[in-house]
Automatic annotation (TrEMBL):
The keyword Signal applies. Gene3D superfamilies: Dipeptide-binding Protein, Domain 3 (3.10.105.10), Periplasmic binding protein-like II (3.40.190.10). Keywords: Signal. Residues 1-19 form the signal peptide. This is Peptide/nickel transport system substrate-binding protein. It comes from Nonomuraea angiospora.
Amino acid sequence: MARTWKTLAGMSTALVVLAGCSFDSASPDATAKGGSKLVVADLWAPDSGYALETDDAFTLTRAGCLETLVAVDKDNQPQPALATEWKQTAPKSWTFTIRETTFQNGTALTAKVVADDLNRLLKATAPPRSFAPGVIAAVTAVDDRTLRIDTPEEDLFLPLRVSVPNTGILAPEAFSGTATNPVGTCTGPFKITSIGTGQSLSLAANDAYWGGDVALDGAEIRYAESGATRATQLRAGEVSVAANLPVTTLATLKGDNNITLQQVALPRTTGLYLNTRKAPFDKVEARRAIQRALGLDAIVKAVYEGTATAAAGPFTPDEPWTPAGLRPVQGDAAAAKAAMAEAGIDPGSLGFELIAYSDRPEFADLAQVIQAQLAEAGITVKIRTGDYASVEDDLMSGDFQATLLSRNHLIDLPEPISVLRSDETCKGSFNLAGYCNPKVDALVKEAGSTADPAERHVLYGQIATQLAADVAFVPLVHESLTMGVADSVQGLPTDPLERTLLTKDTKLS
């Protein structure tokens, strides 16, 4: 199964925190123009031949190469990119005005080129959920500068759909047979000059960038899946920026004054999902008893070394749709025993097998802490490990009792409607817990047809409140992302969507 950016089936990489050291070999490399080159250590190397329906699209947007019709700002609001404006011209139709610019190889960007790229995406074997035939009816070039996208049903989120990296636009020359070649075929501030067998990308500034002057003359992105390797590269001064380091490296990287820690809260929640299709977890009282036995502060400290925050629901505290007053349930054994006694539940009846897939390294420790905390309340937990591929069939078929899951609620769109539909509605395609409440279904449907963002945010808050009341899942922590950045690096974005790394404003002092 193809991975989803930082994830398998929507699960993320480990929480990352890093610090650094002084720079010798990582000092800026002089270029022919007399400028400097930034060296970055990042996680996922492109591994799907740069097919845009895969996570390779994210590697290209992070490299400052691939661009989409629409960008999003820090508030996840749509902003012009390769489209200068857009409007809903009919309930099921949107038009986009295409920017007058060229690709890095000189080919003109036109509405036909955009239509060809997006139609190619729709015909992919596994198109992204945010831009698939089920949500897109047709993509048509009206004229050189006008693109029309039709949808099967009215879709208020269409501009956000074409902000997802998979909908990035490459020049026609990028596509030859089944291969995709991003060298010279992007529109972004950086152009790829060479590809190091999947382990690195060499980049040069795009001197004709439509967005203005590019501060850096060049960059190199080195990929290493091992967090320890990226930590070593940073510590040795081989890179000036290191991203996505596991929390386990924090102790060895702390305390260096030459590195600034850039931390951003991710729209990601790790939770304990109890299978509501099967007894005893078909009863909310049983799910609530489990929740009352878990000490979230202890989990944050023991597993995440204080870099996560205790979770109250699917949304992080600083998101505009998070309901005011919803607080994490800070349980303990005594509270759980009292709750079970009141509900007439025998703690022994709540024993279960917990899946903790090994693709998330911290899940091993998290499962053991949960096991120990529930044991204090008289509840026995057996831990099942294995990689995600080995447990996926059981999760998707509902043949399990409980699982840990880390879920990014903005993974499909920079607004939670898509994940709410898939995860929390009765017939949702990724509703692992089997949770079903017609009231939530109705609220999700209403949110999907509410044009006013403020009104929609209120509905999201009502959904979160109902999920908490029903213990649809047991929220554990919200994760954060931290990059180590040398003091000489400026203009590096902190992007909670993890789509952007190098921009035209990134520079070395």
